[in-house]
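lol forgot to send this yesterday, sorry. C-alpha cells for the thing we talked abt
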C-alpha cells in the first residue's frame, strides 16, 4: 500500500450524521466547477445533482449495504457504497475529494472495499456500473483488475435525481472483477 496515501486514514461505516458531508463530497467530486479540480468530474456530460440526502440516507439504512466513509484528520475525504447482491458485491457512490485525487487514495480505498466485501459477505466478484463514455475512468478501473463486459443499461433520462444529461448517448456499462 502507498503509505503516503494511507497516512492518517480511518475507515468506518457512515451514520445519519454524515449525510450532509457525504452529499457535499460526492457533489464536489462529480459536478460543477469545483469537480474540475479532480479528474473524475462529470461536469462536461451531466449537470444538476449527482445524489441527494435521501439517496445517501437510503444507502446508510439499507440492511444489504454499507456506505464506507474515509476520514483523514477527522475530515471526510472519500466514500464508497458496498452492497451485497448474492454471490457478488456492488461497488458504487465512489467519491474522493477533488483536492486529493491523483495521489493514490482511490487505489487504497477500492482495495479496502474489495477486502471488506470478501471478508464480510464471502463474495467472489465485485460489480460496478460506469457511464460508458468515461474512458479515462474505465481505464483506471481496468488497471485495478476490472474488465468491461459490454453489458449496458440505459441512463435514466428524465430523472433529474441522477443529473441533467448534456448529451444523448449516455448509458452504463457493467464492469466486473474476480475477487478470488
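and heres what i got for the seq, position by position
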Amino acid at each position: 500500500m502507498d503509505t503516503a496515501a494511507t497516512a492518517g486514514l480511518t475507515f468506518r461505516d457512515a451514520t445519519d450524521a454524515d449525510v450532509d458531508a457525504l452529499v457535499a463530497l460526492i457533489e464536489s467530486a462529480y459536478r460543477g466547477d469545483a469537480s474540475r479540480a479532480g479528474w473524475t468530474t462529470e461536469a462536461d456530460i451531466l449537470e444538476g445533482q449527482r445524489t441527494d440526502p435521501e439517496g445517501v440516507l437510503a444507502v446508510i439504512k439499507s440492511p444489504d449495504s454499507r456506505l464506507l466513509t474515509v476520514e483523514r484528520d477527522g475530515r471526510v475525504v472519500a466514500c464508497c457504497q458496498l452492497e451485497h447482491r448474492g454471490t457478488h458485491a456492488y461497488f458504487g457512490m465512489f467519491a474522493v475529494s477533488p483536492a486529493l485525487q491523483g495521489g493514490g487514495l482511490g487505489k487504497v480505498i477500492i482495495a479496502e472495499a474489495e477486502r471488506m466485501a470478501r471478508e464480510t459477505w464471502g463474495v467472489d466478484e465485485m460489480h460496478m456500473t460506469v457511464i460508458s463514455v468515461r474512458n479515462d475512468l474505465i481505464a483506471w478501473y481496468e488497471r485495478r483488475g476490472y474488465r468491461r463486459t459490454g453489458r449496458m443499461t440505459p441512463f435514466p433520462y428524465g430523472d433529474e435525481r441522477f443529473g441533467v444529461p448534456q448529451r444523448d448517448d449516455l448509458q452504463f456499462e457493467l464492469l466486473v472483477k474476480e475477487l478470488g
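The CA atoms of residues 12 and 69 lie 5 Å apart. anyway ping me if u want another try
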